[in-house]
Design brief:
single chain, about 900 residues, alpha+beta, Ubiquitin-like (UB roll), Porin, 13 helices, 36 strands, signal
Length: about 900
């Protein structure tokens, strides 16, 4: 029996059926034959051998991965691409003499043109630039090969001297980790008998003697690990000794810990920062020495921390800040004019024209006169000034007070601090234009944003945004018959919007607490937005306003508290056929999509906690955690009575409805750095959204009222799965619900399902809102060439409803079966990483579809059809 496609009603062959296996087998045979006949050994010169494998054996307690990275020579990589084969492909048509000839010809050509240009400096400059560009390109090809060769790797020629160096570095590393009796032995063996099955396709024996490949084995003998038995201090300066000994509880060294020079280096840095934060401006790590004595008892170390005196004097000097000057227009020079000075809280604010209110700047200034010098306060001041978004750069510099103004006490010193801040542009405008191609229709869009800095003189930031666009979308009330007659007409939707955003550099509070909160970079944000959507099916508007408090506990940890979040959603117009379609979905399949076109008032308050130790380009070994909680509609009983009226005969007459609900989501990500540019990243996310109490709704259809009581959640507060940052093999918000299968309705008979050849047609275009979300992603990211990078990934997840719904069998979450309802998709991605911008293309296909009727393992019918695979374009990494 031939498989049936529910997209077009025609028999589907699938990728692995029919004529494809024979073609696939033939292609595999030819490819394997080519690989079998192509060997990197052909590139070796007489006397050279290819490094085939490197092993590090014998590690028990030492870090095996760190030891691997110390090896100087590593074999050619073959994953995800055979780099040597690519190099050989490029070398097959590489002609060094021809490239050298082109280099000399171009150089002679441009030298002649430069001489002919004479004294025309502009023309000479252009010719010099062109000559340099041509010479640089040819020289790169001479040094590293052509473009294809540079995509691959030249064969790694075994070098015994690098092996000896690697063994020495491995021994040094082991001793730095406390294995003082360790040793490293090296053997380089030549395989005498190898099994290579691909040689069969080149009509060669699979067994062969290979005397040109080398396997290097580093055998590690760790010996016992030495541990600290005693920690002593030898500090000549009594004031420094008092501070260091008082901080022993924060020391990174503990009796019983294993000797580790890396930790010892971190302890030196800790002591340096400790003293710099307590006034010792001149203190450096060079004053700190740690001596290890292993002669006291077997496998033990006595460690002594020695802090020496300064080169001049008997004591380290303790500095106090005398004056603080804040230049708010650094970099601006006006000859013959002096900056005006305003004094606030003993700080001098200097500017030719004071544009910034000193009160707002004073809250961010942690460096104060009369206080001891502190490195941490200096860095905190710089961070807080950068967070204002008022200055292009800001620095804090110090000058020692010398001469007669200096203290007579040699152990004391004075510093004058100067904050130099260069103001950014007051107005910053950003314009974006682009286009989409969705549902067979091109749609342009544009965004305009205007940022106004220091709008009221208190370091405020005011932003305006306008957006307009047209986008093609499928008409949900149509369908595709599969007989070449497309009844599913795409429509062009109009989307307009605007927003206003005001950020204040402090908390708006009824009491004066910003001075104590300044170290957390507090901000208050007001935001208002308006969205208008017009399409033939409906016209919908959304007005939203929020009032937020934002603060940071550290560079990685941020909190957002939103005590006021209000949304008003109104549907100004809805097509009767579309309204009937939505009612059928609700009555027959329990879809809550109809409620998204009701008139809603959604008041809520929420909180967000975000920890992120990564950077913009995600180049660190890092962690990410985002927690979000929201409660809405808690006070609806004070101003709204039940039952709520839903007049579907005249939707415009419906009053605003309020639902009470709770929502919680969590998103955890882990970035494992495997190499300089390769990462293993995984993500786990989940959430729940539920009504807090039942709501009675009286629905009027054709003058007949019907009252129902159910648990209702605003449509926009549901949880969704699928899309470019979720399970990528599914369209955005189209995965789920549970194992329930969604089918299309017959446009000629909206109460019945669409049948093609007697079978129902699946609906892949309808959003699938859920009340419970579980999903995860695993992605391996690797470099390909320069800014061109790739990724292999697998995604899994689904959404469910919490309460049983007889109209949607399989949609409810159940502990004994939910794991069998996790959808799985896999794919490959390309990333163009330009540092400032990352463009992404992901191609994903469904592997396991819990909503598929019959066999859930849909990978057996692999194809690039829209119902099986998805192409995702995006900016930035998916997570």
């Amino acid at each position: 029996m031939k498989p049936y496609s529910q997209i077009n009603g025609q028999p589907s062959t699938g990728f692995f059926r029919g004529k494809y296996p024979s073609r696939l087998a033939l292609g595999s045979l030819l490819l394997a034959g080519g690989l079998g006949a192509c060997s990197p050994l052909r590139l070796l010169q007489p006397g050279q051998r290819l490094l085939s494998q490197v092993k590090v054996e014998g590690t028990k307690e030492a870090d095996a991965l760190r030891l691997q990275t110390l090896v100087q020579q590593k074999p050619n990589s073959s994953f995800p691409l055979p780099k040597v084969a690519i190099y050989q492909l490029g070398r097959s048509f590489y002609n060094q003499e021809r490239i050298q000839g082109k280099l000399e010809a171009d150089r002679a050509k441009y030298d002649q043109l430069i001489r002919a240009a004479g004294t025309d400096s502009s023309e000479v400059g252009k010719l010099l630039t062109k000559r340099e560009r041509h010479v640089r390109r040819h020289q790169l090809a001479l040094d590293k090969g052509n473009a294809i060769m540079r995509l691959g790797e030249p064969p790694v020629i075994y070098d015994s001297s690098l092996t000896a160096t690697s063994a020495e570095q491995l021994g040094t590393f082991l001793k730095s980790k406390g294995f003082f009796r360790s040793s490293v032995a090296v053997t380089d063996t030549v395989p005498t008998r190898r099994f290579a099955p691909l040689r069969i396709f080149a009509l060669q024996s699979p067994f062969h003697t290979d005397s040109q490949r080398v396997t290097v084995t580093y055998r590690i003998h760790e010996g016992p690990a030495f541990k600290y038995s005693q920690l002593d201090y030898d500090i000549a300066d009594t004031a420094v000794a008092r501070r260091v000994l008082a901080s022993q509880a924060q020391s990174l060294l503990r009796v019983g810990n294993q000797y580790d020079e890396e930790v010892i280096g971190n302890e030196r840095g800790r002591i340096e920062n400790l003293l710099k934060n307590q006034g010792y401006f001149d203190f450096r790590q060079q004053y700190i020495t740690l001596e290890a004595d292993t002669s006291f008892a077997p496998t033990t170390v006595r460690l002594r921390t020695i802090i020496s005196k300064p080169t001049r004097g008997e004591q380290h000097r303790l500095y106090t800040i005398r004056n603080v000057s804040f230049i708010t227009d650094a970099g601006i020079v006006r000859f013959g004019q002096q900056r005006d000075t305003i004094v606030r809280d003993s700080v001098k604010y200097l500017a030719y024209r004071h544009r910034f209110g000193t009160k707002s700047l004073d809250r961010k200034l942690v460096v104060r006169p009369g206080q001891p010098y502190s490195l941490s306060k200096t860095q905190l001041t710089q961070r807080q000034l950068a967070g204002l978004d008022m200055f292009r750069f800001s620095t804090v510099t110090y000058r020692r007070v010398r001469g007669p103004e200096a203290p007579a006490d040699s152990a004391r010193g004075l510093l004058d601090a100067t904050v130099n801040a260069s103001p950014a542009k007051k107005f910053q405008e950003t314009t974006e234009f682009g286009g989409t191609y969705v549902a067979g229709r091109p749609g342009p869009f544009g965004n305009v944003r205007l940022k106004v800095r220091n709008v009221f003189g208190g370091s405020e930031v005011l932003e305006f945004g306008l957006r307009a666009g047209f986008e093609g979308q499928l008409n949900l009330t149509g369908t595709n018959t599969g007989e070449g007659d497309t009844g599913s007409k795409s429509v062009l939707t109009t989307q307009l919007g605007g927003n206003v955003n005001l950020v204040l550099p402090q908390f708006l509070l009824p009491w004066r607490g910003n001075r104590y909160l300044s170290q957390y970079n507090p901000r208050t944000r007001f935001n208002a937005s308006y969205t208008y959507v017009n399409r033939p099916d409906y016209t919908r508007t959304n007005v939203e306003g929020t009032f937020d408090y934002l603060w940071q506990r550290s560079a990685y940890l941020q909190y957002v508290l939103t005590p006021i979040d209000v949304s008003i959603i109104r549907t100004a117009n809805i097509d009767p056929d579309f309204a009937q379609y939505l009612r059928n979905l609700e009555i027959q399949q329990g879809s809550p999509l109809l409620r998204s076109f009701d008139n809603l008032f959604i008041p809520s308050f929420n909180a967000t906690a975000l920890y992120n130790s990564n950077d913009f380009n995600e180049t660190r070994d890092a962690r990410y955690l985002r927690l979000f909680a929201e409660l809405g509609g808690l006070t609806r009983s004070l101003y709204q009575d039940q039952p709520l009226i839903n007049n579907q005969d005249n939707p415009k007459s419906n009053a605003l409805k309020i639902y009470d609900f709770g929502k919680f989501t969590a998103d955890y990500r882990r970035y494992h750095k495997l190499g300089p540019d390769s990462y293993l990243v995984y993500r786990l996310a989940g959430g729940a959204a539920t009504a807090l109490s039942a709501t009675s709704v009286t629905t009027i259809v054709e003058g007949v009222p019907t009252t129902n009581r159910s648990f209702l959640v605003p449509y926009d507060k549901y949880l969704f799965a699928g899309g470019s940052s979720s399970v990528r093999a599914w369209k955005p918000r189209r995965l789920g619900v549970g194992s329930y299968t969604q089918y299309k309705y017959d446009p000629n008979n909206p109460t019945e399902f669409l049948l093609v050849n007697g079978q129902k047609v699946r609906d892949y275009d309808l959003e699938q809102p859920g009340e419970l979300l579980l999903e995860g992603n695993v992605e391996y990211r690797f470099p390909i060439y320069s800014f061109f990078k790739g990724a292999f990934f697998t995604d899994f997840g689904n959404v469910w409803v919490i309460r049983a719904d007889p109209r949607r069998e399989g949609a409810q979450f159940q502990l004994n079966k939910f794991y069998r309802e996790l959808a799985v998709g896999s794919g490959f991605g390309l990333r163009f990483d330009f540092d400032f911008l990352i463009l992404r293309l992901d191609i994903a296909t469904k592997v396991y579809d819990p909503t598929a009727p019959g066999n859930k393992w849909v990978i057996r019918n692999f194809s690039l059809r829209e119902d099986q695979s998805a192409f995702n374009l995006g900016i930035g990494y998916p997570f």
